[in-house]
Design a protein that fits this description.
Helix content: 55-70%
Oligomer: single chain
Structural class: alpha+beta
Length: 409
């Protein structure tokens, strides 16, 4: 049952001992403030590292052809390696269980026009799997599909900003766009988290590009994602094995670093994961150190408060107060002060992070923030610490005889 007199006594006690209350509250609020800021900055750093990989799938591998730098098997140095469709098929046949998605690419620069609007863009000729590797998001229409590949159709997918540039008064899907003298039907519009450059790309079927821009089966590069069930070490080993087999396929010296280059994102992802883990561990250590300091502070204050109120406790007992009621008053007062101060510390911490966000961005700390559940958990920890710290001396004081308590100095 709600005891109005009990709560009136608690708030009267808080009001009469403002200095003590402010000291207790400051200890808690400052601990939560530091805790929130530390976690927020750490989350900002983690967001920065994650931002670097949000454009593409994090488990991607890019394979580039190059020029050989060493003579090998009677072949001269300086040979230009050229990938073809059969090399794309070879990787799928040889490493099918290790490959999640795969596309080859042909890159072209074109002058695009629709009615009176003109601009220059880069065209990527791709396979349908590019949707999942590049992580494009369709706004309208559809993506390149297998029928487009098989039939070499003249269709194009355009970025959101291409539509804004060229289709100022109408929607793009269903219209025909001129790409350096060749008409393509726009069948889809996409967006991409990679930013403006990615949203000014155009995609066409790779077989269409091979037919129209060379009448061959050449590809400029191959792009794939490895099986996400593979850990970083297995993914790195897969990249090394693939590079070794491709060098053997093209008669490239094993020590030649230029003939075929395999850029494996597993290496960067492993490094980022390690950094994120290290940052998380560091902030946990510092954060819990801050909490421990807060716990020690609130504990010492509670012990002092109980000792200071020994005479008050004696008077209450002399007037008939039960030990339970005496303990309840002290503990509830501790809980109220800690909870309110913790909430103030949380608001202050969030406010500091909000104000500092523009400045922190200059130091590569993006969107610093802290989960409310973490800070609330830290506040509850301090409340429990204050409760335990106050309970033991309060329990001991509640057992003191009134005459002894009244004589206490």
């Amino acid at each position: 049952m709600f005891d109005l007199d009990l709560w009136r006594e608690i708030f009267q006690s808080i009001n009469m001992n403002r200095t003590r209350t402010l000291l207790s509250g400051f200890t808690v609020a400052f601990a939560i403030l530091l805790f929130a800021i530390l976690f927020g900055i750490t989350n900002g750093l983690i967001n920065t590292f994650s931002e670097a990989f949000k454009d593409d799938a994090i488990n991607n591998i890019v394979i580039y052809p190059g020029k050989t730098s060493k003579a090998y098997k009677g072949l001269q140095a300086g040979r230009q390696i050229q990938f073809k469709n059969e090399d794309h098929d070879y990787i799928l046949d040889e490493f099918g269980d290790k490959v999640e998605y795969m596309t080859s690419r042909v890159m072209k620069n074109v002058n695009a026009s629709f009615r009176n609007e003109k601009n220059s863009y880069t065209v990527r000729a791709i396979h349908p799997d590019n949707l999942f590797i590049e992580q494009n998001k369709m706004l309208e229409g559809r993506y390149i599909n297998q029928l487009d590949i098989d039939n070499k159709t003249k269709v194009v997918i355009i970025g959101r900003l291409v539509e804004e540039d060229l289709f100022t008064k109408t929607k793009a899907v269903g219209k025909y766009i001129d790409l350096s003298g060749i008409q393509y039907k726009v069948v889809g519009v996409f967006t991409d988290d990679g930013g403006d450059d990615e949203e000014r790309m155009l995609y066409i079927p790779i077989t269409t590009a091979q037919l129209l821009y060379g009448n061959n089966d050449y590809v400029d590069m191959m792009y794939l994602t490895y099986n996400p069930e593979m850990d970083y070490d297995k993914a790195l080993a897969f990249g090394v094995l693939m590079e070794k087999k491709l060098k053997n396929r093209f008669s490239i010296a094993p020590t030649d670093q230029r003939g075929v280059r395999v850029q494996n994102n597993a290496q960067g992802a492993k490094a980022v994961n390690g950094i994120s883990f290290g940052l998380g561990l560091m902030v946990l250590v510092i954060g819990f150190g801050t909490l421990i300091a807060g716990i020690v502070g609130i504990s010492n204050i509670m012990i002092f408060i109980v000792k200071e109120r020994t005479k008050e406790i004696g008077i209450r007992k002399a007037l008939g107060a039960s030990p339970r009621s005496i303990v309840s008053i002290i503990l509830l007062e501790s809980i109220i002060i800690t909870a309110i101060a913790g909430y103030i510390g949380l608001l202050a911490g969030v406010g500091v992070l909000e104000l500092a966000t523009p400045v922190l961005k200059d130091y590569f700390i993006k969107d610093p923030g802290v989960s409310n559940s973490i800070v609330i958990g830290a506040t509850i920890t301090l409340v429990l610490a204050g409760t335990i710290a106050g309970y033991l001396p309060a329990k001991r004081a509640s057992r003191i005889k009134p005459i002894v308590a009244l004589r206490n100095d």
